[in-house]
Amino acid sequence: MSPAAVVVIGVGNTGRRDDGVGPVVAAEVAADCPAGVRVVTCAVEPTAILDAWDGADLAVVIDAASGEEVVAGRVRRSTIEEVAGSGALTSHDLNLAQTYELARVLGRAPRRVVVVSIDAADLGHGDGLSPVVAQAVPQAVAIVRAELAADAVQEALHQSP
Amino acid sequence: MTDPRTIRVGALTRVEGEGALHVELRNGVPERVELNIYEPPRFFEAFLRGRAHTEPPDITARICGICPVAYQTSAMNAIEDACGVTVDPQVVALRRLLYCGEWIHSHALHIYMLHAPDFLGEPDVIAVAKHHRAAVERGLALKKAGNRLMELVGGRSIHPINVRLGGFYSVPTKSELKPMAEQLRAALDDALATVAWVAGFEFPDLTVDHELLALTGERYPIEDGRIARSAGNPFPIAEFSDHVRETHVPHSTALHSTLDGERHLTGPLARYSLNYALLSSVAREAATAAGLGEQCRNPFRSIIVRAVEVVYAVDEALRIIDDYERPARPFVDVPARAGVGHGVSEAPRGLLYHRYEIGADGLITAAVIVPPTAQNQAAIEDDLTRVVAAGVDLDDAELTSMCERAIRNHDPCISCATHFLTLTVERR
Predict the structure, then answer these.
(1) Partner-chain contact A51 B136, CB within 8 Å
(2) Fold classified for A6-159
(3) pLDDT tops 70 at residue B412
(4) Whole-prediction pTM value?
């Protein structure tokens, strides 16, 4: 598969309630998005993400956020640099920031990565989003679409083969 | 260096799960070495009770995101045993093919991302990539080949969804497997290069005398087999719980195990040492070229053994694809009947045993799951005792590093056994 100039990546597990918000937002974006934009969904798995954004000018990554300071349903736009520095490698796989750092070292990082995060309310087992996170989906979709509509992105899309 | 002294490490990285290590030294002699797994018990065996006999493959797969196929396979073997059902040999071959994908993905992950940094003096794979970019790219390509194989046969690489009791929901055609064979031929070159790469590392001296426990069979054991061990007499799978006894120790929420009352080791070292003759010629030749004999009892060299097993798994996957004939039916029916069944398979980290009791209504009335990391806790603690005894003259940082390495040699999956280690060393 030839590289796309712009990639939208919905990250998460739809079997863990709000963790599936990334793929849900990505699916809505895919339903009506500019030609040349590739939309993919995957788990936080380094080889899948490295392949998804390899050679891209821009990658927009949509993911659920958890932690002590989350406000369920809050949508935030960040650069990858703002979400990096999350510490040591603590499990069998790499998190998003670590995957980006590995991609950077390997020369396989996109020129720009934007992260759209949605604070989760429920990461338990099961399908479907919690009501508060479901209500946040349109806002997240709008943020992704605004990124794709930016002049620089449109220029990259027109220059891509 | 003061005596007594305490060394604390807030987090042991590059293992899956949470726990702690406590080491007490008195007059330079290790007196107490405890691997403290404090992650809460997950109660899988309890909430399997009352579920339909068809459900354990999907439920137990959720125990681990790295080795779900192992849980699915041992569960299916046990339930099919209880129900007196034998599956089509081509379906068994597809299970083995799917399992090869899990071995390739899991071993490549451990070799390149978790274990290699120990031998290269680097904190993590990102630092390794700065100096060994081609090697890390090779590791990622291998892992990707394993993931792709799991997607092709299992429907997806994490928690495969195409697996069901009696076989699969759908099975690939021979032509659908052909592109996978092309990817695997490239992966075989990467796997051989991996063996040569890790064989060049420097390995601390350590020889362990744990009894070795693994499966064996007509082929190198993966999806099923019979018991093999290094010292005692082999026993039928149905007698597993009579020989491998689980006990609770105060310092761990994961049950410890003994084999006929003694500590034992399962996993790559045991599997390799008990089944060397069953390796394919390309894997055996790679092992010989890497300096491995017919047995390996140095846990630090387990990285070479895993690399040889990746060669085997890739080679074996190619053989299975070459021999593959699409089964007439993707699965056989497995009607429930009252009874007890036992199932085993070789997870990447070692022998995984499942036992189920099924009622006449088809509901599970009892379940026992004995994962490899739980079995290996006593062996890991013994390795640590030896490493600490041999390293008392090391400074705190060096000794702590050796302890962490001794644990990572076994690629422990603490989430499987019941997650992050905190290390405390007390010198008195």
Answers:
(1) no
(2) Rossmann fold (3.40.50)
(3) yes
(4) 0.90
